[in-house]
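In response to a reviewer's request, we include the raw inputs and outputs for one of the modeled complexes. The two entities were modeled together in a single run.
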Amino acid sequence: MRPFEYASPNSKEQVAALLGTSWEQGAILAGGTDLLALMKDDVVTPRRLVNVKGIDTLRGTSYQPGNGLRIGALTTIAELADSKDLAQYPMLFEAVTEAASPQIRNLATIGGNMCQRPRCWYFRSGMGLMPMTKDGKSLVVAGDNRYAAILGTQTGAYFVSPSTIAPALIAYGAKVRIYSAKASGSGVRELPLGRFFITPKSAKEREHDLKPDEMVIELIVPPPPQNLKTGYFEVRQKAAFDWPLAMAAVALQMDGNTVKSARVVMGHVAPVPWVSDEAAATLVGKTITPDTAMAAANAAVTKAKPLSMNKYKITLAKAAVKRAVLKAGGAA
Amino acid sequence: MADDRPRKPEDNSGVTRRDFMKVSAVGVAVPVVLGSVMDAAAEEVPIQGPGKVPITLQVNGKKLSAQLEPRVTLLDALRDNFDLTGAKRVCDRGACGACTVLMDGKPVYACAILAIDAQGRMITTIEALAEGDSLSPVMQAFVAHDAQQCGFCTPGFIVTTTNFLQKQPAPTAEEIRHGLSGNFCRCGTYDGIRAVALAHAGGKQS
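The model returned the following structure tokens for the whole complex.
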């Protein structure tokens, strides 16, 4: 790891001035489980770390029936798994319980989980988000792309968004709040969590809607409507402590036995958590049966464009969607 | 920006007056009337490093101090500065569990924490789990159930297993797999380790 300066502010107002105006100047240290590994491998080399764990107002959860769930960005994944405030959000509970390992969950924060960098091995080897040959050809397309994206790859980005918790949050309609003391007004901006994730169009861009002096301060999950049913499914090589090869988080608002509206969010298939409107549309007005779940699964991958080694991910993504829909419907 | 100022790695700085000033400069520029509003932003935040700074850790009930750069991990500080080599450095990327220690009573990867960031936390290493010169019950169970081969992952596994069994004294096989999933054994002694946890639960040994 390269040498760096270190500062521990205790209020969020101090952070932006300490971070500076470029990613190289300063980086936010929260749980550190991703950042320190990236720094050891020289993938990122910030000249200063701003440890935000002393900012107590960014810690903890609260739930109010009218307003929903507020999660401070510094809440650890283990604290979320132990929180009674998640009682109304069983799919979120499942996602945080299944993420990473006990040791990671004790350190890693929900804000850091949203901001973690892709696990793509080209990126982790220091070749950037869109590794190219000198004549502009994608190394991923020509190389070992077994874990690469199958959807949303039009810009030439083939990494997959790493968070398994983000798809569950997006299915619940979560919003993210971002703060910078240098921004105008209150300094806070709020956006739907789905829009926080970006597919870069060039090697210069990042995969989050975040500026170098901004920090994620909290997540807001709306109160679940009555008759909301959810289902979550990860297809993994290992039973625990593994990233999925494909996953799906499904939220169905029911009207009796029929689906009134649906959200289907897939993970590890695209550079962003992939919201499949096509899959959701097939479910509206239907009852949940193996046939309607399969129809949703097929619709979810109609636009998939596999590379030389990842065609199998289409099969797995379909399985994840089908099983998540069936779980939401109470049938599996 | 002031923090563009190049600094040499050998720059042996703790907190300097200049460091204080460059952060508080934001507040200094605003009129005094706004003082109360800007208090938080104007508050001086010490900037440490990149050279060595005094670091004090609370490990196994003792205060241990050293001059360390901010980039030194808790694991490297324990092993290289405080002669506590029970936590092992294997992957050094938070993926294998060989460096597991307890921080405020919870298992964490010592390689994934900076020593400077572990100050004020209660650190417990494998060295403190033995009872004097004799093995702890979990350590004895690892021997009895042949739960190690080369032994390199064993300290991390014992720290995790000890903590896990305190929280879940009678775990199911599934809970054991989930609770110990953050530790790897390349020799494949998992059956023995599961037997340790099941035996503790009074269950059937596999």
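As requested, we also summarize the result in words. Chain A has a mean pLDDT of 97. Chain A has 13 helices and twelve strands.
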